Amino acid sequence: MAVLGWPDGRVRPLLFGGSPVLPSGVHVDQGGRFLVGADAYRAARLDPARFEANPKRRIDQETLLLGDAEVRVVDLIGATLHLVATEATRIAGVPPGQVTVTYPVAWAGPRQAKLVAAAQAAGLGGVTLVPEPVAAATYFASRGAHGDLVVYDLGGGTCDVSIVRSSPDGLQVLESGGLDDLGGLDLDQMILEQIGAAVAPIAPTQWARLTAPGTQADRREAMILRDDVRNAKEALSRHPSVTVFVPLIDRDVVVSREAFERAAVDRLSPSADLTLAVIRRAGLDPANLAGLFLVGGSTRVPAVATLLHRRTGIAPTVLEQPELVVAEGALAPPAPIPHSAPPVSPPPPRSVTPQQAQLPPAPHRRRRMWTATAAVGLVAVVTAVVVLQAKLGDDGGRQPPPQTSQSQSQSQQPASKASVVASLPDPCTMAADLKQRHQFTAPTATSSPSKRSCEWHFIYEAGAGGLQIDLFLDTDAGSRGLFRSKRSPSPSSDEGSPEPISGLGDEAVLLREQMAELQQGTRLVIRDRNVLIEVMWYGYAPPDQDQRRFSFEQLRTDVVAVAREILSKLG
Prior knowledge:
- The protein is α+β, with helices and mostly antiparallel strands and about 575 residues long.
- Helix content is about 35%, strand content about 25%.
- The protein is built from 15 helices and 24 strands.
């Protein structure tokens, strides 16, 4: 899925073969050329051994063997992103100026780094990452949904459920959970099993050739059957029954919507359990939620909404095109959120031009790590939305309107909290030593009326990781309360007990997180008068590389050095 946007506000999904949905499969031909989407599926019917249907499920692997070719997973993902970028350039007339890629909130640093590397391999620059639930919540918030939103995302290969809070400070992922083994592909498999129950007793040998093909000819027939099964699943959302022809056996099998949905409820039941568990972990009452919002193409199956309504008591919000929500949300600006009371103006700051408010990063937890802003979008192989912003000038793009007299007069009013936040040191100028030692990508800056943030990530042969700096502004009492809340280990993470750190601000604690077998993380929280500083730094080194550069001791040294640099600039 890809969405293209212009500076004047125009938005349109990119079409691939007349459809906004780009199939995730990739095929590598004899000459090493990548075919993507529908072209890949057509080529796979002739040479299925060179085809990978779902690169997303291969994200943790370095390479795949497709036919006699060993192919990097990063290159498979990059092939899809390259096609999207090419189509965006053709439509806009210029290459995209900004690219936003969305990713499942459960993806930690190494997976995110692979996604960035794939985008860079595809020739895309200025890549920003946004968690899918944040993009989805932005879409719904822009249409008036405020409060605590449940985002249920059922894609082709995975199911993710997140609670996103929409508040005056921006969007915050409160809790999330995921199932890596449940998605639209599993519903396809369910229909295949129903067909097998009808034909396997009468043709066991032929059915075995279709379900476990051993020759290229059998793989071709098996792929044809799976394509027809996928089309049947989509048709059952519109028709009471469909007929599927079974090759090799030469029989038609009728699949009814009633039988399909009855089986689908059982298969989807773990996702309803997950939804309830995520709501409970967030400490929320389902009756007080702002809504349950369904995204992802697989939520078109009516059984999804029926099951969730029955189990949660919340009537889900179902859209006509649920697969477009994440892409358009990644493109949308943050929605204005009503305030129950006017904001209190803090003391006047020194004269600094405020940055445009953007989405703040999500809180640092193992299943949710990064947020960002949006520009123009595409969703592809990894259920990723890539948002591409076209640079348009004299050839038809509209320039931003000049500053009005109203905005000029507002600048003479008492300083707002947002302007005070904007006067804080720019976190993107920090961490000079880390930037020299690691190949950081361009920083992503975000801000809200109460916070300035910056984040970087990196990937190279010796490792991958990321750094995030948040500067919060509040009253002195408010910063103390925020410090108390942030110094506690997250109940949904593997953070250890807080370690007090002396000599940093008024008070400081360090928390250690074991994020994966070879991935360490640290989170340093500091209160300095009415400013709260949070620095998150994690790293991963492959087994054949020096592990010491990302040991906890080294990360601890690094994060404390960054904190001292920030404090020196706060003065």
